Amino acid sequence: MSDTAADPRLLRAPPRQGIRLSWADERFRAIIWQVLIVGAVVGIVWWLVRNTQHNLEVRRIATGFGFLQREAGLPIAESLVTYTPASTYARALLVGVLNTLKVAVVGIVLATVLGTLVGIARLSKNWLLSRIAATYIEVVRDLPLLLQLLFWYTIMQTLPAPRQALNPVTGVFLSNRGLRLPWIQWQDAHSFALLGFVFGVVATILYARSARAKRMQDGQPRRVWPAALGLMVVLPVVIWAALGAPWQGDIPALRGFNFTGGSNMSPEYFALLAGLVTYTAAFIAEIVRAGIQAVPQGQWEASEALGLSRGRIMRMVVLPQALRVIVPPMTSQYLNLAKNSSLAVAIGYQDIVSIANTTLNQTGQAIEGIAIIMGVYLCISLSISLFMNWYNARIALVER
Fold first, then answer.
1. Which family does the record assign (predicted)?
2. Separation between Cα atoms, residue 323 and residue 344, nearest integer Å
């Protein structure tokens, strides 16, 4: 090796030049453009705020969120928390937020399950099953969502009355009053049992990770299912029994002209959920199909050579690899489902949009009402994005 190559002084990076106050300097130009853009944005925002304040003063419209503490006098058909028309507007808007979350969370879960099954069926070697899945995908994706929501709501309205309700399964009734299902009389003991189950799930996941790490160290397999059984089944049951929760279910029964007992899904909620799930599942199915086809064919051939069945290959080999392709576009569909739930106002379901619209019509606080709607959907969308980005990072390949 020559002395020139070995001289450490020649290996140093060249000194960084300072910014020249000249338009020819790239960094100087970048700073000027950034200052101009930020200044333009601040100026536009300032003009909008001043213009809005001036118009409100001219029209003598009060601003602020003080109206939230006033009595709402607004009837709401269904709510997850206690509510009466004598409650405040803040309580009414809380009911709207919870109703929106009830649609978004349940819809995301059901759309994921249905979309995954349809996407796998789309790739089935059974010609009839594959054609049915393809027809479902093409038809549902090509029809406007609003039209589909009206279609499902019309179906619910044309169902028979409670006395002639459809009874496909014992304890399940479908009528123009909605879908009535068996349920339990929820008490505090049930809540503690549910918390125990959630704790058991988390503890099982941590134990499984610990067992996997120890197996990588000493090569000794460790059974996870006994711990999972104790934490996820035995623990909640013990909490349930110790706190004296009732074991019998609340079965719906016809009393007069309507049903009593059980849990009821209103026609509006059922139509909204059915429309959102079937519509979003069609897009998810295509994402799942593309993700599965992105896995190299050699993975199938190698798994078949090991004697694995096609179902186990799909579940244990292909889908885990396909998730790296599926998750990013799936996030967009989850966001679309949450935002599309705002169409609930078209069929009379009282979500945050419906309740906020009624509130701003009664109080005249249009700006505050729109701001509340935007804030709610922004929080929901950011929460979905954060969770999906975290999950995507968890399953991403890490280079060594």
1. Belongs to the binding-protein-dependent transport system permease family. HisMQ subfamily.
2. 31
Domain presence at residue 73? no
The values of phi and psi at residue 63, to 5°, are: -120, 170
For residues 156 and 275, membership in a common domain is answered with yes
Count of positions (residues) in the chain: 400
Task: Measure the CA–CA gap between 166 and 270, rounded to whole angstroms.
Answer: 15
For residue 341, what are its two tokens? 């739930």
384 in the same domain as 301: yes
pTM here? 0.79
Quote the pLDDT of residue 1.
46
Neighbours of 391 (CB within 10 A): 14
Q: Is residue 15 part of a domain?
A: no
Q: Interior CA angle at 154 toward 153 and 158, to 5°?
A: 120
**What is the count of structural domains for the chain?**
2
Evaluate whether residue 241 is within a structural domain.
no
Q: 61, 81, 112 — which closes off a domain?
A: 61
Query: Could you tell me if residue 172 is inside a domain?
Result: no
User: Is 26 in the same domain as 156?
Assistant: no
Looking at residue 136, which CATH number applies to its domain? 1.10.3720.10
- How does residue 270 score in pLDDT terms, banded at 50, 70 and 90? very high
In the block, tokens 């279910």 appear at 249
Measure the CA–CA gap between 374 and 346, rounded to whole angstroms.
Answer: 19
Has residue 318 got a pLDDT over 60?
A: yes
Residue 384 sits in the same domain as residue 303: yes
341: CB partners within 8 A, 6+ apart: 100, 103, 104, 107, 272, 276, 351
Q: Which domain holds residue 46?
A: 22-61
Total Cβ atoms within 10 A of residue 274 = 21
CA distances for 78 relative to 211, 220, 374, angstroms: 46, 54, 23
Q: Do 278 and 152 have their domain in common?
A: yes
Give the model's confidence band at 14: pLDDT under 50 very low, under 70 low, under 90 confident, else very high.
low
Q: Of 162, 196, 192, 198, which Cα lies nearest the Cα of 177?
A: 162
Claim to verify: residue 374 and residue 299 sit in the same structural domain:
yes
Backbone angles phi, psi at 20, to 5 degrees: -95, 135
Q: Which amino acid does the sequence have at 35?
A: V
Query: Distance between CA atoms of 327 and 270, rounded to whole angstroms?
Result: 27
φ/ψ region of 16 (left if φ > 0, alpha if ψ in -120 to 50, else beta) reads beta
* pLDDT for res 397: 62
